[in-house]
């Protein structure tokens, strides 16, 4: 019988809305070989001026007021796999709303704001309230609202400035702190592959974008996202999680869509900031 694990739950909602830990329905079958190629380890840009330079590439940012999209999801980790559908609605810089369904029944609803993440797990009757510092600690990867929004629309994970290092006129290195940096590969002025490396936590997040559609804003949008998280467990083993997302419907409403959400006071309450 399928069960939803709390850690798996957090990954699915965070990443495809933009960021990371895990919602999974465990299957009775043995784990199969993942269909997404493993991410290759990368090193931070060299201080050699011939290896990386400081400049700015022409990278288009997708602006929007409101977004509404439906997706197909394929999830796989070391012990489980499942398929589901999801709906995402967004108001730029203020709100991300997610509903995840299995066989037409919603088992997860999420509401992300710049301050917090609210997750209603209908399967386990648990309501999570997370601050991003606590969520980042739980997931082993730095997570923020801006990161989630950038991943939803396929923008760079942080603004591109002259302090970024550039290699081969197509790769942008963006430091987050001394231990964490992004390696972003650009093609046709849009991010094509995003790779987050955290040397302290020994984790890597890879996001490969493909199947482009031109939006009304005349900016390309990736309808396919292949996501791979590689991280070190407490037992010092290396685990992998894979997530494949396919946008099946994409809309840019002129009016603010609805973001229905309630607190579910009868659910078990879990809070962490």
Write the SSE topology.
Layout lengths: L5 H11 L36 E2 L11 E11 L4 E11 L3 E8 L2 E8 L3 E6 L4 E6 H8 L5 H9 L11 E3 L3 E5 L4 E8 L2 E9 L4 E12 L5 E13 L5 E14 L16 E5 L1
Parallel strand pairs: 7-15
Antiparallel strand pairs: 1-8, 2-3, 2-14, 3-4, 4-5, 5-6, 6-7, 8-9, 9-10, 10-11, 11-12, 12-13, 13-14
- The CATH topology corresponds to outer membrane lipoprotein receptor (LolB), chain A
Count of DSSP E strands? 15
For the biggest sheet, the summary is: 15 strands, mixed
CATH class: Mainly Beta
**Which percent range describes the beta-strand content?**
35-45%
Helix tally?
A: 3
| CATH architecture name | Clam
What's the SSE pattern? HEEEEEEEHHEEEEEEEE
Structural class: mainly beta
Spans where pLDDT lies below 50 across 5 or more residues? 1-9, 14-53
Q: What gross morphology would you assign?
A: globular
Radius of gyration, taken over Cα atoms and rounded to an integer in Å? 18 Å
Q: How much helix is in the residues?
A: 10-25%
* Count of structural domains: 1
Mean pLDDT: 80
CATH superfamily: Lipoprotein localisation LolA/LolB/LppX
Main β-sheet, spatial strand arrangement: 1-8-9-10-11-12-13-14-2-3-4-5-6-7-15
State the separation between the terminal residues, measured CA to CA.
33 Å
């Amino acid at each position: 019988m399928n069960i939803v694990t709390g850690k798996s739950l957090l990954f699915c909602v965070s990443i495809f809305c933009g960021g990371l830990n895990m919602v999974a329905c465990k299957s009775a079958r043995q784990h199969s070989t993942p269909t997404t190629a493993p991410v290759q380890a990368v090193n931070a840009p060299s201080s050699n001026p011939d290896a990386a330079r400081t400049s700015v590439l022409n990278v288009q940012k997708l602006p929007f007021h409101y977004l509404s999209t439906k997706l197909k999801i394929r999830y796989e980790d070391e012990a489980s796999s499942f398929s589901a559908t999801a709906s995402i609605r967004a108001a730029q810089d203020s709100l991300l709303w997610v509903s995840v369904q299995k066989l037409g029944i919603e088992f997860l609803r999420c509401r992300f704001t710049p301050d917090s993440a609210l997750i209603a797990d209908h399967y386990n009757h648990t309501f999570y309230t997370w601050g991003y510092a606590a969520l980042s600690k739980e997931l082993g990867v730095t997570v923020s609202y801006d990161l989630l929004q950038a991943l939803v629309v396929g923008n760079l994970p942080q603004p591109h400035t002259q302090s970024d290092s550039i290699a081969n006129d197509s790769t942008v290195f963006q430091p987050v702190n001394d231990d964490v940096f992004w390696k972003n590969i650009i093609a046709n002025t849009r991010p094509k592959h995003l790779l987050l490396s955290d040397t302290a936590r020994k984790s890597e997040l890879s996001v490969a974008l493909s199947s482009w559609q031109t939006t009304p804003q005349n900016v390309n949008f990736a309808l396919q996202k292949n996501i791979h998280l590689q991280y070190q467990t407490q037992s010092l083993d290396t685990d992998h999680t894979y997530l494949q997302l396919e946008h099946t419907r994409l809309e840019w409403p002129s009016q603010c869509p609805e973001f229905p959400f309630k607190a579910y006071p009868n659910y078990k309450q879990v809070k962490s900031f």
